[in-house]
Design goal:
Blueprint: H1 28-34, E1 37-43, H2 46-62, E2 67-73, H3 76-79, H4 85-88, H5 96-103, E3 109-113, E4 125-130, E5 138-142, E6 159-161, H6 165-174, E7 179-181, H7 187-195, E8 201-205, H8 206-211, E9 220-221, E10 236-241, H9 245-252, H10 257-272, E11 281-288, E12 291-299, E13 306-314, H11 318-331, H12 334-346
Parallel strand pairs: 1-2, 1-3, 6-7, 6-8
Antiparallel strand pairs: 3-10, 4-10, 5-8, 5-9, 11-12, 12-13
Helix pairs in contact: 10-11
Bound molecules: ligand DPM.
Ligand DPM is lined by residues 85, 113, 115-116, 162-164, 166-167, 204-205, 207-208, 230, 233-234, 277.
Length: 357
């Protein structure tokens, strides 16, 4: 039910009784009716826009009386395309500009690939909803000459493109005979580089390929035994201002509870290990009834050491499960691996995927 408010009055101090709790300042009915358009911030990449338009469409369907508008902008991660991701090392590479726009009231919500959203958000912003996850697995895409091969059968020395330390460390562990090279750019650019023969194969998230309608290029979905996916992979995270009750209530309708519970455990695990988005940390979650199984891995860049464990608990205690698994991995040597990587990345270790010149 919407109650028409003909001429919304600005909230003046005289209207608020002295000593009133802060919440009464928010006047949600006034806020929702006085705002003609809800502005959705997005990155400009094709994948980001597909995701944002999907969210816009869902919101529009569920709230036909409101207007949702998309405004797109370039983020730091979109601008620095010639430097290896791991070396930039900045958290929030793909999210900062959008967050600033929300804080400055130029956007009301922002749609992110959840895996690009740091586990700690800036003061005043919250994760308003986590949408239903598509396939969170990593996928192998091959050059035409390897159409008859799988990751297990690629010839020694084959050049595999990835900028993900997580993919690199796990794949080096299983396939030490492969060579790894850095690859940057949007998904279309990466596919072009592969097809042009710069790589024998590349590893991408199945989710991104699916959303862009390129599922037919997925040659092999990598099983969890070979590659545990990134925290939040395959889900969208929608961020908004913590005090925007109106937008928060609109976003509630997009939340997918099972995905949210799985991602809460995954994000708590990463947060507890203090890993940014460029760390060789992988996860897998499985939700059956009220039981949540969380698997986590921390791997060294050379692929020699792999600390991996699994924990089951109540989905309602997802956060605690993530924290507990992180502590266990730390007891098994995960912290030493992460500390080493921090130095290796800073010192430009030869273990990092080499850039193609
Ligand atoms: C993050 C990573 C990558 C992206 C690191 C990782 C992949 C970088 C690379 C945190 N963000 O996964 O270990 O391989 O060069 C990104 C993609 C998607 C969201 C593309 C991809 C689409 C999938 C999704 C980049 N962010 O991973 O192939 O929405 O989950």
């Amino acid at each position: 039910m919407t109650s028409p408010v003909s001429s919304p009055q600005p909230v003046s101090n005289q209207m608020i009784p002295p000593g009133a709790p802060e919440a009464s300042l928010q006047a949600p009915a006034l806020a929702s009716q006085s705002r003609p358009v809800i502005r959705i911030g997005s990155r400009q990449s094709q994948l980001a826009l597909v995701q944002t338009h999907w969210v816009q469409e869902q919101l529009q369907k569920l709230h036909p009386d409101r207007v949702f508008e998309v405004s797109s902008m370039k983020t730091q991660g979109d601008k620095i395309l010639d430097v290896a991701l791991a070396k930039i090392g900045d958290k929030g590479l793909f999210t900062k500009e959008l967050e600033l726009a929300m804080m400055q009231q130029q956007a009301d919500l922002a749609v992110h690939s959840l895996k690009d959203l740091p586990t700690r958000l800036p003061e005043g912003l919250v994760l308003g909803a986590i949408t239903e996850r598509v396939d969170p697995a990593d996928a192998l895409v091959v050059h035409a000459q390897h159409r008859d091969k799988q990751i297990e059968t690629l010839p020694p020395g084959s050049v595999v493109g990835t900028s993900s330390l997580r993919r690199l460390a796990q794949l080096r562990h299983h396939f030490p005979h492969l060579a790894f090279k850095d690859i940057r750019g949007n998904l279309n650019t990466r596919l072009q580089k592969l097809d042009a023969g710069e790589y024998d194969a590349i590893i991408l998230a199945a989710a991104g390929m699916q959303r862009l309608g390129w599922s037919d290029r997925i040659h092999q979905v990598l099983p969890a035994e070979i590659s545990l996916h990134a925290v939040g992979q395959g889900a969208l995270g929608i961020e908004c201002r913590a005090d925007d009750a109106d937008v928060l209530s609109l976003l509630k309708s997009l939340e997918h509870q099972p995905t949210a519970q799985r991602c809460q455990a995954e994000r708590a695990f990463l947060r507890e290990l203090e890993g940014g988005c460029q760390v060789p940390i992988g996860v897998n979650t499985c939700l059956t009834g009220d039981q949540l199984i969380l698997t986590g891995v921390v791997a060294s860049l050379d692929g020699q050491r792999l600390v991996k464990d699994m924990l089951t608990g109540l989905a309602s205690e997802a956060e605690q499960l993530g924290i507990e698994l992180a502590r266990r991995l730390r007891q098994q040597g995960a912290q030493e691996i992460l500390d080493e990587i921090f130095v290796e990345v800073r010192q430009n270790s030869p273990l990092l995927p080499k850039e193609l010149s």
